[in-house]
Structures are given as C-alpha cells and as structure tokens.
Task: inverse folding
C-alpha cells in the first residue's frame, strides 16, 4: 500500500504544489514534479495518455478558494491565469517527454516497455532502409539480438513462479545489459552521422534503463540508483558532444538568422546551447552569437542581401538532415533520464522495486476511478483541501 510508504493520493495536484509550479520553484519532468534540488515532490500517474494530465489541475472554484486563503497570493495572477499557467507547464512537460522518445517515468518500470521500444526500433530501421547504408555499424556491431535476449529474459522473470528461476533470469539479464551498455557507449562515442547517432542512442538508452530495472528487481535499490546516475552522466556527456558537433558546429551564430526562427525559437536555442556547453547562460548567449556574427559580417551580410537564393539556402540551411530535431530530442531525453535518476533514488529511499511501486500506483489510479492521480508525501496532506484526498 502507498500509505505504508508514507504517500497519499489525490485526484488533483495539491495547491501547494501548484504554487511551486506557477512560481518556477517546481518543475515537471517525465511525469514527476521536482523541487529546485531535484528531489521528487509528486508523481503524476495517468492511464497512458498525456491528455489526462489536464484533469489534475483544480477547477476555478478550488483555485479561487486557495487564492482567497492567501495560498497563491505571491503569484500575483488571477485565478484563470493561474489555471492557464499550470496547464501550459504540464503541456510543455508532456511535449518534452514525447520528444525525448521515452515514456513517463513510471511507464519505464515494466520490462514490456523495453520490448515495445525495441520493436519500435526494428520498425524504424525498416522505414529508414535507404539510410541504413549510411550506418557504418554492422548488424553484429548493433548487437540487437543480444539486447532482445536480455529484454526477453527480464520479461520472463516477471512471470516466473519459482523464485530461484526468477532470480537466475534476472541475473543473466543484468549481465547482458551491463555488457551491452558498455558496448553501446563505445559505439555511440564513435558515431558521426545522424542515422548512426539516432540508432545507437536507442540501443544505448535501453541498455542503461534495463540494467537499472533488473538491479531494482533483484532488490539492489542502492546499486540501481547509483549505477543509473553514473550511466546517465556518461550518456549526457556524449550527448552534449553530439549536440555540439552535429548541430552547433563552428558557427552557432548562424542560428540568430530569421531562417531558423521556426525550427529554433529563442528559448529552444538557448536551452540547446546551455545543454551542449553544460552552462546556464540563458539569454546571455545572444550577446556572444551577435559578436561572433559580426566577425563574419562578410559571410552573413552576403547571405542577408545579395547572395542568390540557392546559395543562401545551402549555406544557412545546410544542416545534416534531421540534425536539429536530433539535438532537441537529445536535450529532452537528458531531462527525462535525469527524472528517472531521481525516481530510482526515490525508490532507494523507500526500498521498493520499480515494478512493485508501479503496480501500487496503477492500483491506486484504478481505485480512484479516474484517468490520472497525483501521489505525494502524506505529511504534506494537511496543507491541502480535504476534498482532493482519496479514501
């Protein structure tokens, strides 16, 4: 029971948490709400569709009572504006989760998820058959069959009734995931083209998550959390390098041109620059980009004026096909992987396996009779309206 873990369930996001979301003190990543220190404040659980998230935002009546009770007075917005802001925050968070190619944090708790992702990769490779020849890796180099074996072994362990058989399957899968994880790390570091980076990224991420999940099912909660943090840090370091080399290149100042406004709005551009360089400069990047652009005024001036359309498009839009979307996907995936790290550290604190916690969340959601629930620490419950609590 979630109550035994010190957690309670609500049909809507509590007012205190909403205040943090609107003020920016809390952020949403992959279905969890986190504070400024990265700790999980709440889990957001849905029946599968991200649209259900909007049902977690209280109605105007509840928000109006909270506003009158001075719980939201610091926000400086009226009730409708608060509701709209929270809806926007959730929609942006869900869009980022979709862009990352990964599901909500709790959806990664089952080994069926890994099998689903592996099947998706197979279909994607078939769809991009014309690009496969660009991938220098051989089928042996991809080791998809070994990854499939590791996933299937872990999935079979979920249904094993004999504990010794279950444990043996999990140990075998853990060994395979560990070997493949190191292999894909090396292959990803060597990848140079967009198809290579995309393909190996999927395999590498699956191996990282699979290894953490199997460790969790074996009761190794401390190791699962620590290993996932270290492995995701390795992934992020390589992802930053790919974002720099394949997208930003030697002249990131080209992105301040109007041709990139639709693909890279200002907020997205500074987020990518911060991510690629592991810095937090935000809007200050534009000063540097403008200075760099002025150093190449001849090139950029010609592009803006007398250059023929064909040359202008070739110079400005000569990005490798799919590279900008790849960079945005890497940035989004980094955020969701970080949320997974926080989730496994949460599981470490509660000393419960990923699948057991997932099952409790799903049972609570079904008991609530709704498509979505919010789960948060029980000691915070007295601060929230009673009608929001579940029995």
Result:
């Amino acid at each position: 029971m979630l109550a035994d873990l010190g957690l309670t369930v609500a049909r809507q996001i509590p007012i205190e948490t909403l205040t943090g979301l609107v003020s920016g003190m809390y952020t949403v990543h992959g279905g969890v709400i986190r504070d400024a220190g990265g700790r999980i404040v709440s889990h957001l659980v849905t029946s599968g569709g991200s649209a259900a998230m909007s049902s977690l935002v209280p109605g105007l009546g509840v928000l109006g009572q909270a506003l009158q009770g001075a719980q939201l007075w610091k926000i400086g917005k009226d009730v409708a504006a608060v509701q709209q802001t929270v809806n926007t925050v959730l929609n942006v968070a869900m869009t980022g989760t979709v862009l990352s190619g990964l599901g909500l944090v709790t959806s990664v708790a089952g080994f069926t998820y890994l099998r689903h992702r592996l099947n998706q990769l197979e279909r994607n490779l078939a769809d991009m058959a014309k690009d496969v020849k660009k991938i220098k890796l051989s089928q042996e180099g991809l080791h998809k069959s070994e990854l499939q074996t590791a996933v299937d072994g872990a999935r079979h362990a979920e249904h094993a009734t004999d504990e010794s058989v279950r444990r043996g399957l999990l140990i075998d899968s853990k060994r395979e995931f560990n070997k493949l994880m190191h292999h894909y790390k090396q292959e990803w570091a060597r990848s140079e083209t967009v198809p290579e980076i995309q393909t190996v990224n999927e395999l590498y991420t699956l191996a990282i998550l699979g290894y953490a999940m199997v460790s969790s099912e074996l009761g190794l909660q401390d190791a699962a959390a620590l290993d996932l943090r270290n492995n995701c840090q390795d992934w992020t370091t390589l992802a930053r390098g790919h974002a720099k080399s394949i997208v930003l290149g030697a002249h990131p100042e080209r992105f301040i041109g109007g041709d990139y406004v639709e693909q890279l709005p200002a907020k997205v551009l500074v987020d990518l620059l911060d991510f690629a360089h592991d810095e937090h400069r935000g809007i200050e990047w534009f000063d540097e980009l403008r200075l760099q652009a002025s150093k190449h005024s001849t090139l950029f001036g010609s592009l803006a004026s007398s250059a023929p359309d064909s040359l202008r498009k070739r110079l400005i839009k000569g990005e490798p096909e799919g590279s900008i979307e790849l960079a945005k996907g890497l940035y989004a995936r980094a955020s969701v992987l970080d949320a997974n790290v926080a989730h496994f550290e949460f599981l470490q604190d509660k000393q419960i396996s990923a699948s057991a916690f997932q099952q409790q969340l799903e049972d609570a959601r079904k008991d609530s009779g709704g498509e979505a629930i919010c789960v948060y620490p029980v000691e915070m419950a007295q601060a929230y309206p009673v009608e929001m609590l579940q029995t």
User: Anything to note?
Assistant: Strands lie at 7-10, 27-29, 32-34, 40-46, 372-377. The two ends are 12 Å apart (CA to CA). Residues 34 and 40 are 4 Å apart (CA to CA). Residues 106-246 form one domain.
